[in-house]
Amino acid sequence: MLLDVKLLYLLLLLVCINACGGGGSGDSDGGRDVDSTSNALNPNLTGKIFQGCDGSYCTLNAKTGVYTVIPNTNYESQTNKFPYAAMTDFRGTVVEHDSSGFLVLADNRHGSTIFMQDYDGNYLWELTSNQELLSGKLSQDKQYIAIFTGNGSVSSTPTLKIYGVTGDYINGKTLEKNQIIWLRDNRLLYSIGRTFYFTKPASTETDYTLTLPADPNSVVSSGSIGVKAISPNESQIVFTVAEVSGSFNTAARNSRLYIMNLSGSDIRLLATTYNDDDPSIIAPSWSPDGRWILATEGYSPSRVRYGDDLLGTTYLVPADDPGKIYNLSENANERSPEVMLFRRYDYETNGITSKGTGATFPWVP
């Protein structure tokens, strides 16, 4: 497999750099030196980031910036298990704040499959379905699955359904496809427009809502909620609000990063660009230790090409200072000194980069 060869080259490159002492004296990154000769591109970070890469799924070590292929995730090559693999849409998704495994939806016109794997590539369980699977998430206790299903019609509204992992249907409701988050007590959280919806446990029935203030003088004066992430202790939520947004996960223009308590109190602006100049912040993700928010700024979904600056730049924003508004910029003189560039190895080129990937960065312990 091509990816395996590239990973081998990367390992040889790292061995050569460490043995030969190459790489210069390091690169100043917002007050923290990132030594290109070390294996810690992002010192003091913990956990891993779940990513699709070159026909498989990978984990990105947050500290070292190195990708590792998850075994047994080259689904399109597994024709014995997936006879229609070439025409199947595989969607992997993490479990909130959990490192034991991830959920995969395998959808095609001949039938669909829902299965869970651990990060060693072992299949843990599997369900079959005759429904069109659009997206889904597994609850934190791994007892329930929330799935958006369709009926094959582009114009129809999807249905959000909850099942037990044994396949028992629990309840559902018609709802536009959305980013859903399972809370620890098995409530669901999603958003529509400027409103957060909290369901009853293991139910699609709304328990209560929180709507951002409409006052033009408020902290969040206008725009719609985009991607959101819950802190590991579930006390806070970080979210984007965009004036112009193409979808719930790819904000376009005037998209800023906000934070508030899960109760709806203490809403504040967390990050924007220098001088608040046309921000385009997307895809926030919370570090497992609760210290950092990972987010990308500058992504342009309408003209994206791999390796182009239009992928935006990925930053680490501190989450534990309640009095700060942080500036994001590739220019160190414009970027808040507490904000760091998130470094990773580009699995296509093996070079070190801080560019985004055009996708979210789900961060797990």
Characterization of this structure:
The longest helix is centred in the N-terminal third of the chain and has 19 residues, at 2-20. This protein is mainly β and 365 residues long. It has one helix spanning 2-20; strands at 27-29, 32-34, 48-53, 56-61, 67-69, 89-94, 102-108, 111-117, 123-129, 132-138, 144-150, 159-164, 169-174, 181-182, 188-192, 195-199, 206-211, 224-230, 236-247, 250-261, 268-273, 281-286, 292-297, 313-318, 326-328, 340-341, 344-345, 352-353, 363-364.
The oligomeric status of these chains comes to single chain
- Radius of gyration in whole Å, from Cα? 21 Å
Number of helices: 1
| Number of DSSP E strands | 29
**Adjacency order of strands in the biggest sheet:** 18-19-20-21-25
Mean pLDDT score = 84
Show unreliable segments: 1-37, 246-251, 303-307
> Fraction of residues in helices?
under 10%
In whole angstroms, how far apart are the ends? 28 Å
Percent of residues in β-strands = 35-45%
The best one-word shape is globular
Structural class: mainly beta
Q: How many strands, which pairing sense, and closed or not: the largest β-sheet?
A: 5 strands, mixed
SSE order: HEEEEEEEEEEEEEEEEEEEEEEEEEEEEE
Quickly describe the structure.
By secondary structure, this protein is mostly beta strands.
List the helices and strands and how they pair.
Blueprint lengths: L1 H19 L6 E3 L2 E3 L13 E6 L2 E6 L5 E3 L19 E6 L7 E7 L2 E7 L5 E7 L2 E7 L5 E7 L8 E6 L4 E6 L6 E2 L5 E5 L2 E5 L6 E6 L12 E7 L5 E12 L2 E12 L6 E6 L7 E6 L5 E6 L15 E6 L7 E3 L11 E2 L2 E2 L6 E2 L9 E2 L1
Parallel strand pairs: 21-25
Antiparallel strand pairs: 1-2, 3-4, 3-29, 4-5, 6-7, 7-8, 8-9, 10-11, 11-12, 12-13, 14-15, 15-16, 16-17, 18-19, 19-20, 20-21, 22-23, 23-24, 24-26, 27-28
